[in-house]
Amino acid sequence: MHDDNANQNSESTESTPSQSQSRREFLKTASAGAALPIVGSSSVAGQQEAQQDNPLFQPKEFWEKRMTPPDDGKKYGWFIDTRRCFGCHGCEVSCKSENDVPLGKYIRQTFYKDVGQYPKVARMFMPMACQHCEDAPCIKACPCGALKKGTGGSVIIDYDTCCGHATCVEVCPYGAIYMDPVANQAVKCHNCYHRVEEDMEPACANTCPADAIHFGDLNDSESKISAAMAEAKKNDVGVTQLRSEKKTNPRMWFAGDSPAEIEERIPREGESYSPETYNIYNWKESNP
Description:
The chain has 288 residues and is α+β, with helices and mostly antiparallel strands. The chain has one domain (20-276): Alpha-Beta Plaits (2-Layer Sandwich). It is built from twelve helices and ten strands. It has helices at 5-8, 23-26, 28-34, 42-50, 60-67, 90-99, 137-141, 167-171, 193-196, 203-207, 224-234, 258-262, and strands at residues 76-81, 109-117, 120-128, 147-149, 155-157, 178-179, 186-187, 213-217, 239-240, 252-255. The strands form four sheets. The chain has a four-stranded mixed β-sheet. The N and C termini lie far apart (46 Å).
């Protein structure tokens, strides 16, 4: 199981957690956020109705309340400028370090593709993680009710409840969830809520040397993400979302040509991020 850095960095006078403590302790505070008073959302309800039925989904009455975020006035989202990303993988390394992700597993991953023909060639990059969908399939499919909306609409997992059923992996359109090999529980990006609650950026956004990853409150016009998206709009930079046909209303937007080129390489339902993404045989590709 994983010990989490939020526990290690605690400012309380409690003793240091033992290595036997699991991620349940780390994410326990997230459950409290999801338990705050909730309000109805006609837009979210409409999106839920629009999404196609899936036999893996639980009855609506089982997940409807968990799909609605707490009434905190925040709306967390991501803006990824793939034009700036040069594939350093700093976001991956910082994410692994911050969340104690084991070898061979990823909460976020940078995908790449070589395009063009010699001598005019280029390598394109696309950082990926959980999209924190407003109409999240993983919440609908979770049979134990562990997945829910937390602060700012972040999709989080309650590790006191997760039973390791893995249905969430089967329905995620972005391959953003993996099963922990030791705890046998689902793991995904949780927007580094333990950092955000201390007014810090998620580890990946804070680490990115190219300033390609922007996170923040979309309801705050002064936030980093709002400023970045406003700048893109001002400069007529096209912004897109991945696999919008899934009707999940993701909270991640991309600028640049990488999504169109690399989308086919992003894992789908029933898949997770894999070390095979970096297989040396992917370095050289033939063009049609």
